[in-house]
Amino acid sequence: MIDDFNLELIVQPLQDWFAGHARVLPWREDPRPYYVWISEIMLQQTRVEAVKGYFERFITELPDVKALAECREDKLLKLWEGLGYYNRVRNLNAAAIQIMEAYDGRIPDDYQELLKLKGIGHYTAGAIASIAYGKPVPAVDGNVLRVISRVTCDDSDIMKQSVRNHMEEKLAEVMQAEHTTVIPGVFNQALMELGATVCVPNGMPHCMECPWQNLCEAKKRGCIESLPVKKKAKSRRIEEMTVLVIRDDEKVAIHKRSASGLLAGLYELPNLPGYMDTEAVLSYIRELGYAPIRITPLADAKHIFSHVEWRMKGYVVSIEEPGNELSAEDARYYKEQRKKKKLVFVDAEDAKERYAIPAAFAAYAGYMNIRLGKEAFDKKEETGA
């Protein structure tokens, strides 16, 4: 258990190991507060390799707090497209505004002050304070929870906030002890690195590469695979929906989601709750005042969020404007219907450059002649476009 283990023993072997095994990452090369902050927010729920390109693009477009604070939402969401969890980037913008107004544009170096910023919790505050400012405060993420649980053979449930708080307290004691040789930024990054590359979450850890192999209580007791203890998460809610790729020649319809809830404020392909058959889809298209020319069923798809799973049935529907047979009254009615549905017809270039469309619709993006999410970003990196 963590209370029975002398955590001071892990410090020097870990820091020595990190000196020879730290990955080269763009935010490590220049650990200024802004770079640490942006990278840590991007790295939440996202792999390091996926973040590198996004980070470079983001800081090129928005090189400092002032630029981030002044950035309009559409551009911000487009820069974040493919990283998911879009509230993270909205919180970045809100915190940047706070920093400009309350801290004269300087990211605070005090842990408690950092916690006052929108979207910054204990882990991110600890990362900024320790890595950018050298303050002896812990930064406990999933990697740290796992490696400390294993080296101390602690079977407490890491999903409990009380357990996380206690681990932070124990690490803070070590970091702030006068006689230790802790280098705060190095120590915290080394804990994360060990969890990401050696004491890994999936599959067997690489114990022979671990600087703690002679200290690890879980290894001595043969209980590595059972740690950390993590209470089973609630099952995801299943949502069935029908997704429509509505094409008018080379243009495709998109729709802006509401300002709150899942994927708030992003653009999406029009969709309807539940699974609809061909006739129901054609009826819906006619209700919008369009004349369907052709409808083609698409392969089913799914997208998994943290608490929700979308299961999607798709159709491509080619349309044209109805002829002159519409009465003035019908024309007014259809105009109102379209306005209510807020459909916008865009071409592929517009969609790529101006509209942030979540990767949840990636399975159907090919029918829009665009790529979404990481696939789009990877392609852009390849071509330099």
Automatic annotation (TrEMBL):
Question: Entry's Gene3D superfamilies?
Answer: Helix-hairpin-Helix base-excision DNA repair enzymes (C-terminal) (1.10.1670.10), Hypothetical protein, domain 2 (1.10.340.30), Nucleoside Triphosphate Pyrophosphohydrolase (3.90.79.10)
**Record field: catalytic activity:** Hydrolyzes free adenine bases from 7,8-dihydro-8-oxoguanine:adenine mismatched double-stranded DNA, leaving an apurinic site
KW DNA repair (keyword) present: yes
* Record EC number: 3.2.2.31
CDD domains, from UniProt?
ENDO3c, NUDIX_DNA_Glycosylase_C-MutY
Question: What domain of life does the UniProt record list for this protein's source?
Answer: Bacteria
Any Pfam family from its record, for instance, is HhH-GPD
One MF term in GO for this entry? Answer: 4 iron, 4 sulfur cluster binding
* UniProt keywords, alphabetically: 4Fe-4S, DNA damage, DNA repair, Glycosidase, Hydrolase, Iron, Iron-sulfur, Metal-binding
Residue ranges occupied by any HhH-GPD domain in the UniProt entry = 42-197
GO biological processes: base-excision repair; mismatch repair
**Cofactor list:** [4Fe-4S] cluster
What does the entry's cofactor note say about binding and number?
Binds 1 [4Fe-4S] cluster.
Kindly indicate whether the keyword Acetylation belongs to this entry. no
Q: Which family does it belong to?
A: Belongs to the Nth/MutY family.
Cited function: Adenine glycosylase active on G-A mispairs. MutY also corrects error-prone DNA synthesis past GO lesions which are due to the oxidatively damaged form of guanine: 7,8-dihydro-8-oxoguanine (8-oxo-dGTP).
Q: What protein name is recorded for this chain?
A: Adenine DNA glycosylase
> Its gene?
mutY
